């Protein structure tokens, strides 16, 4: 599979535990796919609610879909995927994101809907290329001031959270065209 460019495992009923995979199989799945351009692991329960260590070797991957992965945390090493442009982490078990999240400098679209996030890291303001951010149906009570640094942000969906106020830095989002705040 060294030439594989896209892998989609969408809505697959397969359930595997990391212990069920041999070390060689885990390496084959991720280590030798350096050129992979798109990875979709949607609603597939793998790796004991955590990302495999070798995912950081997918250095050239611009698209990653982990929708419904039952992911409990995003490890800081994940933020070394410098070419990542579109990331879908919807329908997981996330309560926070690592402070290193701002290192994903090429990120254009980020989907965080249907998690249990209580806050977004301040480093999110470093994502200057981001045009779309969706964090609907979480437990966000406030947004970081640094969110105002997202100069390219056009579409922001923060519906169905527990937001009490929008800070003054929100006015810095001059490119914003679509804002969803419904409850």
Automatic annotation (TrEMBL):
The keyword Repeat applies. Pfam families: LRR_8 (PF13855). Signal peptide: none annotated. Keywords: Leucine-rich repeat, Repeat. GO terms for cellular component: cytoplasm. It comes from the Eukaryota. InterPro entries: Leu-rich_rpt (IPR001611), Leu-rich_rpt_typical-subtyp (IPR003591), LRR_dom_sf (IPR032675), LRR_domain-containing (IPR050216). The keyword Ribonucleoprotein does not apply. Gene3D superfamilies: Ribonuclease Inhibitor. This is Uncharacterized protein.
